[in-house]
Specification:
161 residues, Single_hybrid_motif, Acetyl-CoA carboxylase biotin carboxyl carrier protein subunit, 15 strands, 2 helices, OB fold (Dihydrolipoamide Acetyltransferase, E2P)
Length: 161
């Protein structure tokens, strides 16, 4: 099965590319970052200037012109379509209830300093206990629910400074 990729160049031009198209390009490595490419009987010299594996972005110089290229595979495209960012490192400042439930335990208090992965609270939903771990290190700014409270989906539970 041929995988489709979404390629964006300089944040302005996007096009779809198939893995088989990339494999069909005649490229010879000069060294680990430089290549001689022959496509449609046209020669190109390409050099990878910078690459970010996690963000899937590359700075590539082709025949002396610099291009910033982002490559998204089908999973990356699906994640973006769902409203998430691939490889994004956004700071989480609030914890909201992902579903209606009952607060069984509130493990933190206002002003408390927490580390990433510390248990913040336990929410019972659909007869299951769900532990909420801190997504980051920080200080608890406010708590909007207490032990024994019934909460609705999307309700603010904890806010970080």
């Amino acid at each position: 099965m041929d995988t489709n990729y979404k390629v964006t160049v300089n944040n302005t031009t996007s096009f779809d590319s198939k893995a088989s198209e990339a494999e069909a390009i005649d490229a010879i490595a000069i060294n680990s970052s430089q290549f001689h490419i022959l496509k449609d009987n046209q020669p190109y010299t390409a050099e990878i200037i910078n690459s970010d594996f996690f963000a899937k972005t590359y700075s590539i110089k082709v025949n002396g012109n610099l291009y910033n290229v982002a490559i998204a595979n089908p999973l990356d495209q699906l994640i973006k379509d769902m409203g998430f960012e691939v490889g994004a490192s956004k700071q989480v400042n609030v914890i909201k209830a992902p579903m209606p439930g009952l607060i069984l335990e509130m493990s933190v208090s206002v002003g408390q300093e927490v580390k990433q992965n510390d248990c913040l609270l336990i929410l019972e939903a659909m007869k299951m206990e769900n532990s909420f771990l801190s997504p980051r290190a920080g200080i608890i700014k406010s708590i909007s629910a207490s032990k024994g409270d019934a909460v609705e989906k999307g309700q603010l539970l904890i806010e970080f400074e």
